[in-house]
Specification:
This protein is globular. It has a domain at 4-181 and 223-247: NAD(P)-binding Rossmann-like Domain (Rossmann fold, 3-Layer(aba) Sandwich), CATH 3.40.50.720. It is 40% helix and 17% strand. The strands form 4 sheets. Strands 3-2-1-4-5-6-11 form a 7-stranded parallel β-sheet, with helices on both faces. A two-stranded parallel ribbon has the order 7-10. By secondary structure, it is of the alpha/beta class. It starts with a strand and ends with a helix. Bound molecules: nicotinamide-adenine-dinucleotide. The site of nicotinamide-adenine-dinucleotide has 26 residues, from helix 1, helix 4 and strand 5. Residues 9, 11-15, 33-35, 51-53, 72-76, 94, 98, 117, 119, 177, 179-180, 186, 193 line the site of nicotinamide-adenine-dinucleotide (NAD).
Length: 332
């Protein structure tokens, strides 16, 4: 019999890529989200539009036994959404409600296993002050001191998935994602993350113009291309180990270096201008030793390879948006 999966958050970036991958493996897939994917049609066999904060909608989404449930739905965005303070109550309330509902219904139904997408934002600020040597090994998460309410919610929800696994007979898997990027992610709606935001700014800039970067650009991060994120997620999900574990790249770069790489791909030379903006921690890198030890596999794609696939997609979005504006201008 065909295996089946439910992807919560199937209208979002990682969820829509996961649906494609599961379909390519022959799964019967149901997607659930507030919205359909924005950039391509969902390949899910069935897509339920609804709000996972509502217990009734969760019951509906989980009304049949699934071999695999992927929980990606969250109130989420980049630094311009997560770190400005204005969205803290919504971020915590909405995402906790979703996770409480999903877990409660999973505990009542015959569900093979449940994957939860946590985040590198759970790691304490005091270990990420130096952009040259952040420490994000899995066991350094306590004493807890995440830099955002988003991180606190992720840490609480991780514990929820682990507690339901201990007490309620659920098989769960928990990963901490570090900056996933690629085509068909948010790029211009205020929820985009730094690779997409810089690709957009570079695509929109005139040769010789300026490129604005928040802060001094020396803050460091690592970025994982979506295909490797999906591969790593499936490997964890189908292993006999629960996590939590980092899923990220360990190729750490400064934001200035990220910008240089995107400019090189675009063929444009722009003057970097540093401006004030929300920043998050000073340094962050994925420590992949535990994943390698437990799963015998590691991500390996160089950052630049993923950027070479992402920049053209964002450039095409920028160009299509410009054509639409022009068409609207000439018809009005
Ligand atoms: P995304 O915002 O593109 O996708 C999340 C989806 O959840 C959206 O489509 C949204 O509509 C949906 N959603 C939100 N509230 C909902 C609700 N009440 N009911 C139903 N659907 C709802 O985000 P993403 O980048 O695909 O991230 C997926 C998961 O991975 C999230 O949990 C996120 O916190 C986690 N994560 C992502 C990254 C990253 O770099 N993208 C890093 C760390 C963790």
């Amino acid at each position: 019999m065909k295996k089946s999966a439910l992807v919560c958050g199937a209208g979002g970036f990682i969820g829509s890529h996961m649906v494609k991958r599961l379909k390519s493996e022959g799964f019967w897939v149901r997607g659930a989200d507030l919205k359909l994917p924005e950039y391509s049609e969902s390949t899910a066999d069935e897509f339920l539009l609804g709000d996972l904060r509502e217990p009734e909608f969760c019951q509906l989404a989980l009304d049949r036994p699934f071999d695999e449930v992927y929980q990606f739905a969250a109130d989420m965005g980049g630094a311009g959404y997560l770190f400005i303070g204005d969205n803290d109550a919504d971020i915590m309330h909405n995402s906790v409600m979703i996770n409480l509902n999903v877990l409660r219904v999973c505990a009542q139904k015959r569900i093979g296993r449940v994957f939860y997408a946590s985040s590198a934002c759970v790691y304490p600020m005091y270990n990420q002050l130096d952009p040259g040597s952040p420490n994000c090994t899995e066991d350094t998460v306590y004493p807890a001191d995440p830099d955002s309410e988003y991180g606190w919610e992720k840490l609480f929800s991780e514990r929820l998935y682990l507690a339901f696994a201990r007490n309620k007979g659920i098989v769960s898997r928990v990963a901490r994602y570090h900056n996933i990027f690629g085509p068909e992610g948010a790029w211009n709606d205020g929820r985009e993350k730094v690779p997409a935001a810089l690709c957009r700014k570079v695509a929109m800039a005139q040769e010789g113009g300026e490129l604005e970067i928040w802060g001094d650009g020396d803050q460091s991060r690592s970025f994982l291309y979506i295909d490797e994120c999906i591969e790593a997620t499936l490997r964890l999900m189908r292993s006999d180990w629960i996590g939590p574990v980092n899923i990220g790249s360990n190729e750490m770069v400064s934001i200035n270096q990220l910008a240089e790489r995107i400019m090189a791909i675009s063929g444009k030379t722009l003057r970097i201008r540093h401006i004030p903006g929300p920043l998050g921690v000073r340094g962050r890198n994925s420590d992949n030793r535990l994943f390698q030890e437990k799963l015998g596999w590691q991500v390996s794609q160089p950052l630049v390879d993923g950027l070479k696939l992402t920049y053209p997609w964002i450039k095409s979005q920028v160009e299509a948006a410009a054509r639409n504006r022009e068409a609207q201008g000439s018809s009005g």
